[in-house]
Amino acid sequence: MIIANYTFDKVNGALCQIDYEDPSQDLWKSAGIYHYLNNKKNGEGFTVFRDGAKFIGQFKEGKRNGEGKYTTGDDRVEEGVWVNDIKDGIYKVTYKDLRQEFQVWKNNEFVCLYYP
After folding, report:
1. Which of 5, 43, 79, 91 has the most other CB atoms within 10 Å of its CB?
2. Under a CB-based contact definition with an 8 Å cutoff, are residues 63 and 81 in contact?
3. What pLDDT score does 27 carry?
4. Distance in angstroms (rounded) separating the CA atoms of residues 83 and 91
5. Which one, of 38, 52, 40, lies nearest residue 96 by Cα?
6. 41 Cβ contact list (under 8 Å, min separation 6)
7. In whole angstroms, what is the distance from residue 9 CA to residue 67 CA?
């Protein structure tokens, strides 16, 4: 259930939008410039989840798709490419203490880890 939906402007068929959603859902709020197709977000934006995690990047058909940055509630940052909302490729992971590692994922399955 959407509690509030603010649409600010139409630009070339795009909507700049902020949604505040039901706190019982995992998704808490999102904003961005989206083109809607079949009522699903396409474009650039961000999503903040109830647990404090957030995703900034590209969406296609309402899913993370393309380059993005996912920050967990404990401030771990994962940068990489998502395909249909799953990890697929090399992700640079930065921890709160600034340690970094690279993770390889295929179809949302962890493959291996290496350090810079």
Report:
1. 91
2. no
3. 55
4. 13
5. 52
6. 30, 32, 34, 59, 61, 62
7. 25
- Quick one: which of 85, 83, 90, 84 has its CA closest to 105? 90
Q: What ranges do the domains of the chain cover?
A: 2-114
Residue type, 18: I
Query: What's the pLDDT at 62?
Result: 81
Q: Which residues of the chain fall short of a pLDDT of 70?
A: 1-34, 36-37, 39
Q: What is the DSSP letter of 39?
A: T
**91: its two tokens:** 């992700």
Tell me which fold the domain 2-114 belongs to. Answer: 2.20.110
Per-residue confidence (pLDDT) for residue 105, from 0 to 100: 94
Structure-block tokens of residue 34? 């989206």
What is the rounded (10 degree) CA torsion for 53, 16, 63, 68? -60
- Tens digit of each residue's pLDDT (9 = 90 or more) over 39-50: 677 888 888 877
Residue 8 CA to residue 107 CA, distance in Å, equals 36
